[in-house]
Automatic annotation (TrEMBL):
It comes from Dyadobacter sandarakinus. Pfam families: OEP. Gene3D superfamilies: Outer membrane efflux proteins (OEP) (2.20.200.10). This is Efflux transporter outer membrane subunit. Belongs to the outer membrane factor (OMF) (TC 1.B.17) family. Keywords: Lipoprotein, Membrane, Palmitate, Transmembrane, Transmembrane beta strand. PANTHER family: OUTER MEMBRANE CATION EFFLUX PROTEIN, OUTER MEMBRANE PROTEIN-RELATED. It is found in: Cell membrane. Its main location: membrane. It is a lipid-anchor. Coiled coil: none annotated.
């Protein structure tokens, strides 16, 4: 009767544990995601420049070769690939947790029981039994124990906790793969940006050289006029100062070229060396830039997909943290040879085996599980907000890129006209100065203005390419 009551209370405790745990299995509803616009402002075409492979999108063969080199040797990309391998090992570990663990066990030990304990008295009394032969008599007072065999443990996934953890690990793997793709898009865009920066610097250097020749000629002219008494020493010094200032700009541009080449070589995974490039004047911008539809962008853009998989993984981890409160079914077993004498260990009578299964549920001091649950819930919310932020950032980048591309083209057109006007002004001011109808300050101002305008025009043209690249990346282009 007493045994029955103990068994009854044991079953009751188990049922209470199950009932208390089941209260936590209610599905956790994720908040609604951000509702995105159906179209981009001013865009109606379904096609998108992001659908164009980067090898086709970039027409310059030198730039294509640089990007191809970077995709094979860039260290950030190699690091991203190793993150994928780490995430893949997490999937293997989660899958392995669902299977039984079997291990080989070779152990030996011993124990001396107290003379006035149940085990000590029982072992002492057993040796006086007439049913025991010499092999079965217990060594005294030290009792050895030898075991050779297999031991196994298995948590049966009755609630789907381990399956949920595996799904979370798999989502993390998909997230890291999208992260690698995001590195690729960023790398392609960064290399293209550096390349066009270099072409713009080359153009600036060419403008500087042309203006140096112009300013040097003007300086020689004013020296001749000084000797003829038609100009002052102040005018000579002003022209010389302008010439020195332009030469210092030449040195600055040379330094910027070195810095950009070195930065580009670093992305290519190689030591500093010269970078071949096409003059920016020979590069052509495509017409009819289209962004397509937001839905296609969200499917294509890697960082948005990465945030989405992170969101799914966080949700699965949250569910797994809740399922941890439920009872777990664990099965342990062993089979092998067990004896208290080494010479009897491999005797057929030493074969031993056991199997045990039981439900265990956390009842008291579940703070660690509750802390894990709170952390998983907070991580899920963080992933949710991170996803929304990524989507908002994508729309902001695209909207800015579309307007920047449009406005940089307008600026380029105005600057082209300004340069043409100022180049004419330089020629006129020089003729007037030689004829005595203009002073030297007007010549210096005209030369400085045309230099600034030509440099600004080069930067405006560069900005058009940079805006196009940024829009291409923002729409999810640049990876295959």
């Amino acid at each position: 009767m007493k045994t029955y009551k103990k068994f009854y209370w044991l079953i009751s405790a188990g049922l209470i544990a199950i009932v208390s745990g089941c209260k936590l299995t209610k599905p956790v509803q994720q908040q609604a995601r951000l509702k995105t616009p159906e179209t981009f402002t001013g865009q109606t075409d379904t096609a998108s420049i992001a659908d164009i492979p980067w090898k086709t999108f970039f027409k310059d063969v030198r730039l294509v070769a640089l990007i191809d080199t970077a995709l094979h040797h860039n260290l950030d990309l190699k690091i991203a690939a190793q993150r994928i391998e780490m995430a893949r090992s997490g999937v293997w570990a989660a899958h392995g947790a669902m299977l039984p663990v079997v291990g080989a066990d070779i152990s030996g030990g011993g124990r001396k029981f107290g003379d006035y304990t149940m085990d000590g008295v029982g072992n002492y009394d057993t040796n006086f039994s007439e049913n025991l032969d010499n092999d079965r008599r217990l060594p005294a007072p030290f009792l050895p124990d030898y075991f050779v065999g297999l031991r196994s443990g298995w948590e049966v996934d009755i609630w789907g906790k381990l399956k949920t953890q595996k799904r979370a690990a798999y989502n993390r793997l998909l997230s890291t793969e999208k992260g690698r793709q995001a590195v690729i898009t960023g790398l392609v865009a960064e290399i293209a940006n550096s390349y066009y920066e270099l072409t713009a610097l080359d153009s600036e250097l060419e403008i500087i050289h042309r203006n140096l020749a112009l300013q040097d000629s003007a300086s020689q002219t004013v020296r001749i006029q000084k000797e003829a008494g038609r100009a002052t020493e102040l005018a000579v010094r002003q022209f010389d100062a302008q010439l020195l200032n332009t030469r210092s700009m030449e040195v600055e541009i040379h330094q910027k070229i070195i810095e950009n080449e070195n930065r580009l070589n670093l992305m290519l995974g190689r030591f500093p060396q010269a970078v071949e490039r096409t003059p920016i004047q020979n590069l052509v911008l495509p017409d009819g830039i289209q962004a397509g539809f937001p839905a296609a962008m969200l499917r294509r853009r890697p960082d948005v997909q990465e945030a989405q998989w992170n969101l799914q993984a966080a949700y699965s981890e949250q569910q797994a943290a809740r399922l941890a409160f439920l009872p777990s079914l664990n099965i342990t077993a062993f089979i092998g040879l067990n004896a208290f004498k080494s010479n009897l260990l491999f005797n057929p009578g030493s074969v031993a085996y056991s199997a045990l299964g039981g439900l265990t549920a956390p009842l008291v001091n579940r703070r660690a599980l509750k802390a894990g649950q709170k952390r998983a819930e907070a991580a899920s919310l963080e992933a949710y907000y991170g996803y929304n932020k990524t989507v908002l950032n994508a729309f902001q980048e695209i909207s800015t890129g579309l307007k920047k591309l449009e406005n940089s083209r307008k600026i380029g057109n105005f600057k082209t006209q300004e340069v043409a006007v100022l180049q004419g002004a330089v020629s006129v001011s020089r003729d007037l100065f030689i004829g005595g109808y203009a002073n030297y300050l007007e010549v210096i101002t005209a030369q400085r203005s045309v230099l600034d305008a030509e440099l600004t025009l080069t930067n405006a043209r560069r900005d058009q390419f940079l805006a196009l690249i940024e829009l291409y990346r923002s729409l999810g282009g640049g990876w295959e």
